[in-house]
Design brief:
The protein is an alpha+beta fold and 765 residues long. Helix content is 43%, strand content 22%.
Length: 765
């Protein structure tokens, strides 16, 4: 194989004698051929025919220098005339790697004497925007003695043919993806990429119309700038909403030649200008009944109208997209009908069976708790019998709506059938103590009177609760135990809530445990643990929250969820709360007597405590008895507590503020809190609920809510403490959001007084 040398880079004036002979022989051959043809084709020269050919035709010598090329070859390679080709090589015309590739192939052809026929080559021609695909044949050229003196090359542009082949393959692939029911985003992205591959300097986009037919949402835009795609995601359609919003509104194509001057883009010019787009052509994606499903748009950075070819491709794209979207909607509808209740739209038993096993598996891996609540409407039969089934259906739909509005987005409400429902509370930490409160709030929502044609209707409910993994490790065990607990709730008089405990006694606590709990309060079986509250900026402990625990003489440690509900039901929560208040004040004073820096101690206040007219006096007595200054005591109340009777709550809070104690609103952001509580009541601190914190920083909605809560609290001169902080990522977000204090397992679990003492002493080392 011949290697390129310095001599081969010389100009045409220094051609070798052999090459000159090849040139002369080629010209003589062509002249001779023309002479022979002149008898059959008058005044037509072979050379003219060659120059009129649309394909490349050229001759090279043994050193791969061009000896001759026709006119189209010269023009395509950026040379003004055919004569300029003489003596040039591919190294003068192409990038080195491509030229070397051509050179090696040609040298092998001339060395072996074997032609290469129909080679597909990707060629980047000078000044071309995109590579072209050519079908090339190269044949050894021999002299009269049979010696190889060069080669003849013929090359045809097959770019358009390849594009058509790619387009047909792409269509077949898309139809196969649709038939296999692959995810719609994947299908739409493949569609956009297929269309973009056919065009130059064009970016495609699919937007999907929502179910209400009012807004367009992101479908696929693999090459549009991400910032632009996010800005137009969720745009409301209308008669003057750019190209896509207007096309969806009109139900017809909208061609905008210049987005910076067209009145349809008047409200969106500032949005699109930074991204450099100048024209946008949008066509509705519609059903066979001409109902708009979305839009397919092409963007160009040139001011122009689309070509006929581009609009043909758009028509193809909208047709395929329509098939894919309609198929997805039909499948979604079938799946929804199979997994949801027709009347209420809630998930049904089939959906529950499909989802609950996965929820429990995830909870098992993440050491989380899942609670299921079996809910039966107590007097629903009376509604059907007295008001008719139509009224009963309306009641069921209203109750379903109330239940959905009472839970978090991560939770689930299921209609099991008839008047039975199931609530699944998921993504809780293993130490979540707010479940009972949330279920009681849900029970209250169910009980609110409903207006009916024959007067108000009031429905009560019996609720049975079972928790994973304590009350069962499988879906079947949890549902069975929750069901048993629900029937016991009915036995207790209905409109009650019971927790499963594994026995046949009343769920929540065995029989006689009310007396046991009373004995625990008076017999020194209760004790407190303390969870530190940490300053975000300094990392120092600034306060602790007092949390009550029960060490049963026979059963050992009893979780709060197993005795706090009973205490609330029986009224024992009042003496229990007073014991907690006094013990917390005693411990705070004890730490001060040890020489430790005073810090705030937070105590939770129940609804019954707060409703006690003598509660402020009890607080004053606890402070005086333990010689604790009031500014070191913080009382935590939830919004549900103070909103039960606003006037009475305000009066109580004024009495407590007169004592000098701090007040905080607990569990803010858990789904019940409203801005009215912050505006109405004189709180000092806002405690952001762990259910909101646990979604940070991965959930965009949680980020927005948390940021807004922190900003709002600071505007109202409230300090902010985030509960349930467990990860560095949560901590980093809260620090950046300027949250002042945090509390959670990232710093410390609730610990005994002795362990808390060690933590506090460590700050002075």
């Amino acid at each position: 194989m011949h290697e390129p040398s310095a001599a081969r880079w010389e100009s045409a004036d220094s051609l070798s004698a052999e090459t000159r002979r090849l040139v002369a022989a080629t010209e003589a051959m062509m002249a001779s051929t023309a002479q022979h043809l002149s008898e059959g084709v008058e005044n037509l020269r072979l050379k003219a025919i060659i120059h009129e050919l649309p394909d490349f035709l050229y001759v090279k010598d043994r050193d791969s220098r061009f000896v001759f090329a026709n006119a189209v070859t010269a023009a395509s390679l950026g040379l003004g005339s055919v004569e300029e080709f003489a003596g040039k090589r591919d190294f003068d015309l192409f990038e080195f790697d491509a030229a070397r590739r051509y050179f090696d192939v040609e040298q092998q052809i001339m060395a072996s004497g074997e032609a290469r026929i129909d080679m597909e080559e990707t060629v980047v021609l000078p000044g071309a925007a995109k590579p072209v695909c050519r079908l090339t044949s190269k044949i050894p050229l021999r002299n009269d003695r049979g010696a190889i003196v060069g080669l003849i090359g013929v090359s045809r542009d097959i770019t358009e043919r390849k594009l058509q082949e790619d387009l047909h393959r792409g269509q077949a692939k898309l139809l196969e993806m649709i038939a296999r029911n692959e995810p719609l985003p994947m299908i739409l992205e493949a569609l956009v990429l297929m269309i973009e591959a056919q065009l130059t300097g064009i970016d495609g986009s699919v937007l999907l119309l929502d179910g209400e037919g009012t807004k367009l949402y992101h479908g696929a835009a693999p090459n549009l700038p991400g910032g632009y795609s996010r800005l137009i995601d969720g745009v409301t359609i209308g008669p003057k909403v750019g190209s896509c919003g207007t096309a969806a509104w009109r139900g017809e194509p909208v061609i905008v030649e210049d987005v910076l001057s067209d009145p349809l883009w008047e409200d969106f010019r500032a949005l699109v200008a930074p991204f450099g787009f100048r024209s946008c052509w949008s066509t509705p994606i519609a059903t066979s009944e001409n109902n708009v499903l979305g839009t397919f748009a092409l963007y160009s950075r040139e001011v122009r109208r689309p070509t006929e070819q581009e609009m043909t491709l758009v028509a193809l794209a909208t047709h395929v997209a329509g098939i894919a979207i309609e198929r997805k909607r039909v499948d979604d509808r079938i799946h929804f009908m199979a997994h949801h209740d027709d009347l209420t739209g809630l998930p049904n038993r089939a959906f529950l069976k499909e989802r609950l096993a996965g929820i429990l598996d995830q909870a098992r891996r993440n050491n989380r708790k899942v609670t299921v609540a079996y809910i039966d409407l107590d007097n629903f039969k009376e509604v059907n019998d007295g008001r008719g089934h139509a009224a009963g259906d309306e009641v069921l739909k209203e109750i379903a709506t109330r239940m959905v509005n009472s839970i978090r987005a991560s939770d689930m409400v299921v209609r099991l059938g008839g008047d039975e429902f199931l609530v699944v509370l998921v993504h809780q930490s293993s130490h979540d103590a707010g479940i009972t409160r949330r279920l009681r709030d849900l029970q209250k929502a169910i009980t609110r009177p409903m207006r009916g044609e024959g007067g108000d209707i009031t429905i009560t409910s019996s609720i049975g609760v079972a928790a994973f993994p304590v009350d069962g490790t499988t879906s079947e065990e949890l549902l069975a135990n929750a069901d048993r607990a629900m029937y016991r709730a009915k036995q207790f008089g209905r409109n009650t809530l019971q927790h499963h405990d594994g026995d046949s006694a009343p769920v929540g606590m065995p029989r006689g445990e009310q007396e046991e709990l009373h004995q625990a309060i008076t017999g020194h079986q209760l004790f407190l643990e303390y969870q530190p509250q940490v300053d975000v900026a300094s990392g120092r402990i600034t306060g602790v929250e007092a949390l009550v625990r029960w060490k049963h003489p026979a059963k050992g440690r009893v979780p709060p969820i197993n005795f706090i509900p009973l205490a609330e039901e029986t009224g024992l929560i009042v003496p229990l709360g007073l014991w907690v208040l006094n013990e917390a004040c005693r411990q705070a004073r004890s730490w001060q007597n040890m020489g430790l820096t005073p810090l705030t101690i937070a105590v939770n206040v129940s609804a019954k405590q707060f409703a006690d007219p003598d509660f402020a006096s009890h607080v004053a007595e606890a402070l005086e008895r333990n010689r604790l200054q009031s500014r070191w005591l913080e009382l935590e109340v939830t919004e549900s507590v103070v909103m039960q009777d606003v006037d009475r709550a305000l009066a109580m809070m004024e009495q407590l503020r007169a004592l000098g104690v701090r007040l905080s609103i607990d569990d803010f952001g858990s789904g019940y809190s409203s801005l009215a509580a912050l505006k109405t009541f004189p709180f000092d601190r806002l405690k952001m609920d762990r259910s909101l914190v646990e979604a940070l920083p991965g959930d965009k909605t949680a980020i927005a809510i948390a940021s807004a809560v922190i900003s709002l609290a600071q505007t109202l001169k409230l300090s902010v403490l985030a509960e349930g902080v467990e990860t560095d990522a949560q901590m980093d977000f809260l620090r950046q959001a300027h949250c002042e204090e945090v509390q959670g397992y990232r710093f410390s679990k609730p610990v005994s007084p002795d362990e808390a003492t060690l933590l506090l002493q460590a700050q002075f080392l």
